Q: What sequence folds into this?
C-alpha cells in the first residue's frame, strides 16, 4: 500500500516540477519582454500564463492539502522541489516588480499627457466671463475628456 502511495506522490511531484519548469520559462520570457517594453509580447503571453497558473495551483494544492505526502519522498527529491520552487519564487518577485514599475510608468505618462492637454486647452480656449464679455482668463472650467484605457 505504501509503495502505491509513493508512486502516486512521485508522479504528482514530477508533474508539479514540469509545471514549475514551464512557469519559470514563461516568466523569464515575460520579464525580458517587460524589460524591453515589448507590450505585444507581454499581452501574447497572458493566456498561456493564465493556464499555467491554474495548473500550478492545482498541482501544488495536492501537496498543500496533504503535506505528510512529502514525508514519503527521499531527501534528493525534496531538495529538487525546494530548488525549483526557490527559482520560481525569485522569478515571481522580479515579475511583480517589473509589472508594478511598468504600470506606474504608464500611469505617470498618462498623467503628464493629461496635464499638458489641460494646460494647452486652457491657454487656447475662449470663453465668456461672468459679465458676458470675452474673457480668455476665465477658462479654467473647460471640459476635457481623456480615454484612460491602458
A:
Amino acid at each position: 500500500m505504501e509503495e502505491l502511495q509513493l508512486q502516486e506522490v512521485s508522479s504528482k511531484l514530477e508533474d508539479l516540477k514540469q509545471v514549475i519548469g514551464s512557469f519559470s520559462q514563461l516568466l523569464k520570457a515575460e520579464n525580458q519582454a517587460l524589460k524591453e517594453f515589448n507590450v505585444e509580447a507581454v499581452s501574447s503571453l497572458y493566456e498561456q500564463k493564465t493556464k499555467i497558473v491554474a495548473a500550478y495551483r492545482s498541482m501544488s494544492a495536492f501537496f498543500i492539502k496533504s503535506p505528510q505526502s512529502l514525508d514519503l519522498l527521499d531527501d534528493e527529491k525534496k531538495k529538487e522541489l525546494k530548488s525549483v520552487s526557490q527559482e520560481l519564487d525569485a522569478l515571481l518577485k522580479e515579475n511583480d516588480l517589473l509589472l508594478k514599475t511598468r504600470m506606474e510608468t504608464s500611469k505617470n505618462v498618462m498623467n503628464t499627457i493629461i496635464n499638458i492637454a489641460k494646460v494647452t486647452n486652457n491657454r487656447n480656449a475662449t470663453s465668456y466671463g461672468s459679465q458676458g464679455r470675452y474673457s480668455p482668463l476665465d477658462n479654467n472650467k473647460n471640459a476635457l475628456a481623456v480615454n484612460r484605457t491602458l
